[in-house]
Amino acid sequence: FFYFYAGICSALKLTVPSHTIHGIEGQPLHLSVDYNFNATASEIQIIWLFERPQSNPKYLLGSVNQRVVPDLEYQHKFTLIPPNASLRINPLHLSDEGNYIVKVNVRGNGTVAASQKIQVAVDVPVTKPTVHTEPSSGVVEHVGNITLKCTVDRGTRVVYQWMKNGKRLHAGPNYTFS
Question: Could you tell me if 54 and 102 lie in one domain?
Answer without folding.
Answer: yes
